[in-house]
Amino acid sequence: MKIISFNQVWLAQTVSTLGTKITNFSLVILAINVLRVKPFDLGIINMSTTIPILALGLFVGVFVDRYSKRWLMVTTDLIRAILACMIAFFFSQGNYSFGWLCLAGLFGSSCDFIFEVARQALIPVLLKDKSLIVGNSKFLFTTSICITLASGTSGFLIEKIGAANTFWIDAFSFFVSACLVAFGKEPVIEDRKKHTSPLSDLKEGLSFVFSSTKILWLMILGMIWSLSFAMASVMVVLFAETYRGLSVAHISAAFAVAGTGNLMSSFLIPKICKNFGYSWSLIVGSGIATFGSLLISVPNYENMYIFCGAFFLLNFGASIFGVSQMTLRQSLVPELLQGRVSATASFIFRTFTPLGGLLGGIVGSSYSPRSAMIAGGLGYSSVFLISILFNFFQEKAASETEFSKVI
To answer: Domain spanning 202-406 has what CATH number?
Structure first.
């Protein structure tokens, strides 16, 4: 049997992402239109998608490093397919239940998290360092397309066939993804440990993260970035209506323009990293995002074109930063530790995202939506400054190493 190719994983992730986005949208529609839930209940459903990450996030990386990443991806896809079929069947029979939606969110988010960690750990094994940035840029491109398609097709499908029946389509997408990954074998990773305890493996992974200066810097950057992004994004619609005088149609157009920033960056990221290197790509991306974020929130204007342009710059820079940060992290981690380090990064980022949303809500309520937006922009600015320091210390360490060799 041939070794599984990158294109198989790429296509599987694309199909799986499309199914995940449609599922998430359909869950909300079912909760609002069928079960008539209250805002507090929506918060419970959202919380059910976060609990698995908080409870199992770090240990997921241990199992990804111990066992076949490919079969973990296949298994999680099949579980999600079965879960989608069950929701579609029971809701079509009139068995509506708030508990069912919470369980769907719980198990669906768990499988999504495991699939993503396994995928991030598998890609460096399949691709060489020079091809890694190209591969991650391809994932960014198709993920952006999937988000756009899911946003449009979900509403259309729900109107035509009903929210419950869209889960049959979701189930089919997960099944296709599982089949794509199932055919082919995974490259052998030597010295894969299975005789040690999961706890000792977890300690080994965390020890690597905290002992590696570069990895620790990247984790801190990602943590601040997630916090800042959530603080700003939770208030952006209210801010656009209140301070920019934009209609719902104008705000939707701004989001569409911002999406093109993701798509354009996916083509340019490999060239930027090739010409400037990963460290400078972090600076370029965070700098552009900072400028876009502050342009959105600081000046006084009611011009849709300026707002759209600023939103475009924010997404364009954020994509450069995100892909460069992940690729640099993957290139620095040994194959045996990819799962644990990826799980740690995902755990940190996903934990600080809801925290940032909470802080954004508090700042927006206590002061104003603009204050929350500016706070998010200042967070991006701090990432930009830390990225410059990160690059400075890297170059200083490299020059000292070269000097010691000469001596």
So the answer is: 1.20.1250.20
As a whole number of angstroms, the distance between CA 328 and CA 31 comes to 40
Q: How far is Cα 77 from Cα 295, in angstroms, rounded to an integer?
A: 41
**Do 6-186 and 202-406 share a fold?**
yes
Q: How far apart are CA 191 and CA 400, in angstroms?
A: 34
- DSSP-H helix ranges across 93-128: 98-126
Domain ranges for the chain: 6-186, 202-406
- Helix-strand-coil split of the chain, %, nearest 5: 85, 0, 15
Q: Side chain identity at 390, as an amino acid letter?
A: F
Contact criterion met (CB below 8 Å) for 348 and 78: no
Helix (H, G, I), strand (E, B) or coil at 213: helix
Nearest to 37 by CA among 355, 255, 46: 46
Helix (H, G, I), strand (E, B) or coil at 3: strand
CATH of domain 6-186: 1.20.1250.20
pTM of the model: 0.84
> What is the chain's Cα-based Rg?
22
154 in Cβ contact with 21 (< 8 Å): yes
Query: What is the Cα–Cα distance from 72 to 58, expressed in whole angstroms?
Result: 16
- Distance (Å, whole) CA 343 – CA 394: 25
73, 75, 77, 80 alpha-carbon torsion, rounded to 10°: -140
pLDDT tens figures, 75-130? 999 998 998 888 888 877 777 677 777 887 788 888 888 999 999 998 988 887 66
Helix (H) or strand (E) holding 389: helix 369-406
